[in-house]
Description:
heterodimer, A: Nuclear Transport Factor 2, Chain: A, six-stranded mixed β-sheet, 13 strands, B: alpha/beta, Alpha-Beta Plaits, Rossmann fold, 37 helices, globular, ribosome biogenesis (chain B)
Amino acid sequence: xxxxxxxETKTMFEKLSKYIGENIKLLVDRPDGTxxxxxxNDRVYYMSEKILKLATNFSxxxxxxxxxxxxxxxxxxxxxxxxxxxxFLAPYAKFKVWVKPGTEQSFLYGNHVLKSGLGxxxxxxxxxxxxxxxxxxxxxxxFGVAAKxxxxxxxxxxxxxxxxxxxxxxxxxxxxDTLT
Amino acid sequence: MCLCRHRPSVIxxxxxxxxxxxxxxxxxxxxxxxMGRKLDPTNQVKRGPGKKARKQKGAETELxxxxxxxxxxxxxxxxxxxxxxxKRVHNLKKPKEVAAEKAKKGFTDENSKWLTPAKRxxxxxxxxxxxxxxxxxxxxxxxxxxxQQQLKKGGKEQVKKAAKSGVKQVEEEDDDDDxxxxxxxxxxxEDDDDDxxxxxxxxxxxxxSGNEAAAAEEDDSDAEELLPIERAAKKEKKLKETMGxxxxxxxEEDDDDDDDDDxxxxxxxxxxEDTVQTNIDEMDAFRxxxxxxxxxxxxxxxxxxxxxxxxxxxxxxxxxxxxxxxEGKERAExxxxxxxDLSTYYSYNNFLIEKLIDIxxxxxxxxFLEANEIQRPVTIRTNTLKTRRRDLAQALINRGxxxxxxxxxxxxxxxxxDSSVPVGATPEYLAGHYMLQGASSxxxxxxxxxxxxxxxxxxxxxxxxxxxxxxxxxRNTGVIVANDANADRLKSVVGNIxxxxxxxxxxxxxxxxxxxxxxxxxxxxxxxAPCSGTGxxxxxxxxxxxxxxxxxxxxxxxxxxxxxxxxDSVNAESPSGGYLVYxxxxxxxxxxxxxxxxxxxxxxxxxVPTGLDFGKEGFTRFKERxxxxxxxxxxxxxxHSHNMDGFFVAKLKxxxxxxxxxxxxxxxxxxxxxxxxxxxxxPQKNPSKTVKTSKTVPGKASGSKGKAQANGTSGKEKANIxxxxxxxxxxxxxxxxVAKMDGETVKxxxxxxxxxxxxxxxxxxxxxxxFEKKQNKKIKSPMKAKNRMGKNKFKKLKVILQKEGGDIE
Lengths: 180, 809
């Protein structure tokens, strides 16, 4: 486990800011203690200092997970967000998409969100903006990328994709083995 | 042979209903055509147990006990018999007169009108339908005789006759409930051919009687009213009765029984009767099967129903042994039969059945075994980090889940009765609003009662249910170390932790026994020890046959190691905690009370109340073993009494970080250690034996030496003991010993642990060093010195002792 290098930090924060914008600093400077990002097995974990200190007790090969996993660096040094980060994305998300109850299940199986299943969308969403997907009951279901702007969404036919799927909570079951 | 003559009351009762049936038959002709034999499915539902019940022979014998004697009371019967006798006398005296009378009275079709008014009068007098129907029965009998003489007609005629007489009663007779009538309709609106068939059906079941057809008819009608099982029971009852009465009325019977009965039928009946008779025998007084019978069983296995009945009877006898026992039979014989039957019926292996018999009183045993055959209800735990129980319940109800709060004792549990969607894959589940978790898994966490901001260890955490429950009780503050020895199972821990939004967790993959070295000083530790799983047989029926003594001992040994390392990981000086909760999903005493008792002796811990207001107290004595009296503060949970998995929970408070090294304790340890390895050979040895002279210790150790040893650990331990035995000369003053022992007690576990370690790594060694630093500094240096010395000495001493041991042996 080690702190992220500058480059890694930059890559990761760029990715993160697609979803929560400048709210990133709320993640780093928290009123309830210092929180930090650490890299372990190519994965980025977000944890408080307190846990960090305790985690030093464990050897690298025996340590499985600390705090919350945000995502992982691919071999090509891109950063890929995991669904496990949703707990921290959802409260700070700038742009949100709500899906209709009928589409919930489809999204949770890894499908994109179609216009027909779109319940609501934040105003002024730009194309390719990272969005967090909610159910109509305001339960965060995952996140993705807006395929169209809000304006375009009004006009397109019902079967066209409005949100590209990136991660959904169904992965907790589908990809349990690869989450960490 | 006719037996049915002597069951007039019952048949009479049946006849009444038959009248009803017939009445319906003629009053509702439209329905007849429409419905035919096929019943309306809605009607069929009300019929009760259905076909399966009809098949169960065991239940009818059982039911026969419950059916009251009201219809078949011997007194009434005798009165009837008297009446009948009078009639018979009458008959014999002037049979022709009777015939004439009959003609006059008109029990023919036309005159059957006559019957009912008389009947009604009687009814008003006696308010007992049976008697007047009995009377009817008598008349019918006569009628039949008459018929035989005159017409030689079959059952059809009688049916018709009876039917007509029934028709005339339509207005007068009281009705049964509508539903029943409807059913009756369904079954009875056949033409006579069908009825004939029915006659045959029941005729075979029925014992041979002169009035075969009529009786069969009555049975038939009766069938509509009674459940098949009840019918069978009644039949049996009747039979019994007849047997009793047979001797009295034999001659009469002979007179009446020259009927047009089929010969084959009566043959059948005799056989039938025989089987029933044997059943009655079993019911009346349970007797042990003889040697040749059990031999036969070996060749032809009994059917399960018989075995089930036998288990029941056997237990009944065993519960009231002094009164119900068979003369000259030992309790052990009954028990051994019971064991055999139980293991056959529930397909357990003998070992487990024996263990269970030891644990449960006999009355509970079958309940327990039965409870293991059915699944426990699905329960879920609300994740209070993300939602509230009420909101969750509402959301799930909207998805078509039928649920209820779990019980008073839990504010977060919900029971799922049924669901139209998979409960493990709803969006709420995926969003982490709840966790699928057995009710029993709540208990250890509730007992642990973690406080906010504490440092906790969950020693074997997979799949993370208890860990996340702890986290939600701590509201994501403090730190939880979730450990599990199995790396694969840790994936589910990680998944669940993230899904439920728990952020204060470190997940690591150590063997639990390494723990105080990896990290110590926890405020609380939850040890959900790996176990034989005898409490969760409903979940995993493989346990029934796969476990034996060795498995239990292996589990117990591991548990003892783990509980010590768990205790060592607790910081007794913690301002808020210093607690350990030990739990297993096993109900074996070896894995529960014994382990805790062992820990009580080895470490400075005491049992404290678990804070769970239900559950059964732990054993303080079990067979030859005596445990610390405070063990009744631990709690046991059983599937049959609490409808949750079998579970054991004990809460321990550590009151000192010092590892006890008193001489008495020392000896105990040794005896324990030797016993740990020896248990299989000498289970009768009492683990709580406290004071042993130093002489006995080495003697025992060497005694057990020659026997098979499971692993290196035990070997080491024995070496340890032996060496000490050598040093502790029998005459040595106690005070002098203490110093030596101080070194050695610490050495014991130290020497043991490296061997236990599966993968000793560099980190481990380092941490070992840290751990030692953390240990009490006063004993540190002598301990180390001893340790070094000991290793070399051991080998020498081993050799010496082996020689000596040989001598001793």
